[in-house]
């Protein structure tokens, strides 16, 4: 391998190592930035879920407080007059159910029996002391409470307020908001698809619904999507938000699972939000390919410039100088061509060799002359 080829090979290795390191670091930074943006977006969805849940819980409690404070309702619950409440509140419930997502409006008596369900007036009198810890808590503390709880009609966000006749508790008023409106509101604010899943192991009734591991879809903004995501990602419930990723039909979905705790603190399920990050990942891929192309072009240009420079200023002067010195060493006429100038060090060698040749050649010629 010639000197020029060795220099070219060394420079190739150095360039590839240098640009490769820079590319690897840049790609790592780009990928970290993409992951951070994806994580921040999913955290925002999780925070929006929690804030919407809290806000709707406060709304449910406020409505329950309104009905609990109305004098007509107080006297009717105290006297056991279901008809009076039904007549007064039936049109109100119909309006709230249609316009505000109120799924239930009901009253319990002080002995923890169901007094009246506006959504099912014919069903009353059942004992709620075992199935409804929120109602029991309000009955004992005389303070309003809100939270998620399973009941006769399934999962709902409920607000329960005490019905007080002076200082005496005569019953409780309850308003329950459906979760479909809540998850649709979160989708509107964040653009993410949202589902409510319940844990079969924690007592959720699934009926004819498909079970995915331990989870069953209760409500969702896109049932088909979440059925596929639950099969592909197999998310698990935890006490803290958890994150996952799934690829469906070349689309990348980021997933955040927010735990769903009932009023007693028992984890009965979770909210699963899925955001489409295909555009974000495609942008990262485009940036990565642009970077690789630019780096390849830079390597080619740098190598070409260095190779030409090495050949012009180092390799060629050394080659001519080598031919010059070989001719002198073999006793041949080195020729009249002067070695071309190169880099400073090469010029020094050429000048020194030329000067040396000027002294050596005459001396050699004098030594070969015959004696007279």
TrEMBL record:
Protein's UniProt keywords contain Ion transport: no
Q: Which superkingdom is the protein from?
A: Bacteria
Q: Which SUPFAM superfamilies does this chain map to?
A: Sensory domain-like (SSF103190)
Per the UniProt record, one Pfam family is dCache_3
Q: Which UniProt keywords apply?
A: Membrane, Transmembrane, Transmembrane helix
Coiled-coil annotation reads none
Q: Give residue ranges for domain Double Cache.
A: 44-269
Gene3D superfamilies reported for this sequence: PAS domain (3.30.450.20)
Give me the segments passing through the membrane: 6-27, 291-310
Q: What is this protein called?
A: Double Cache domain-containing protein
Q: Tell me which species this is from.
A: Reyranella aquatilis
């Amino acid at each position: 391998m010639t000197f020029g080829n060795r220099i070219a090979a060394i420079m190739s290795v150095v360039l590839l190592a240098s640009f490769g390191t820079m590319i690897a670091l840049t790609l790592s930074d780009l990928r970290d930035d993409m992951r951070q943006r994806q994580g921040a977006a999913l955290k925002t969805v999780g925070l929006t879920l929690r804030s919407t849940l809290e806000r709707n819980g406060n709304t449910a409690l406020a409505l329950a407080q309104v009905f609990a404070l109305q004098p007509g309702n107080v006297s009717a619950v105290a006297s056991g007059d279901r008809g009076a409440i039904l007549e007064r509140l039936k049109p109100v419930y119909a309006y709230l159910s249609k316009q505000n997502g109120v799924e239930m409006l009901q009253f319990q008596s002080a002995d923890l029996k169901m007094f009246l369900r506006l959504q099912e007036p014919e069903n009353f009198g059942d004992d709620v002391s075992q199935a409804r810890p929120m109602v029991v808590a309000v009955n004992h503390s005389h303070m309003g409470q809100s939270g998620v709880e399973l009941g006769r009609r399934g999962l709902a966000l409920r607000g329960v307020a005490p019905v007080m006749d002076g200082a005496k508790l005569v019953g409780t008023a309850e308003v329950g908001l459906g979760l479909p409106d809540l998850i649709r509101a979160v989708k509107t604010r964040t653009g993410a698809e949202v589902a409510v899943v319940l844990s079969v192991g924690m007592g959720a009734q699934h009926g004819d619904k498909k079970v995915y591991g331990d989870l069953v879809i209760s409500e969702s903004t896109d049932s088909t999507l979440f059925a596929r995501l639950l099969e592909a990602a197999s998310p698990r419930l935890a006490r803290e938000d958890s994150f996952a990723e799934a690829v469906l039909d070349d689309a990348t979905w980021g997933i955040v699972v927010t735990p769903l705790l009932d009023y007693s603190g028992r984890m009965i399920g979770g909210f699963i939000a899925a955001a489409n990050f295909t555009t974000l990942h495609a942008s990262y891929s485009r940036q990565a390919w642009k970077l690789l192309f630019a780096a390849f072009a830079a390597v080619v240009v740098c190598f070409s410039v260095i190779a030409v420079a090495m050949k012009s200023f180092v390799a060629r002067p050394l080659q001519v100088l080598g031919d010059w010195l070989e001719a002198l060493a073999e006793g041949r006429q080195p020729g009249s061509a002067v070695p071309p100038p190169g880099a400073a060090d090469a010029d020094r060698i050429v000048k020194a060799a030329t000067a040396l040749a000027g002294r050596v050649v005459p001396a050699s010629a004098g030594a070969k002359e015959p004696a007279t």
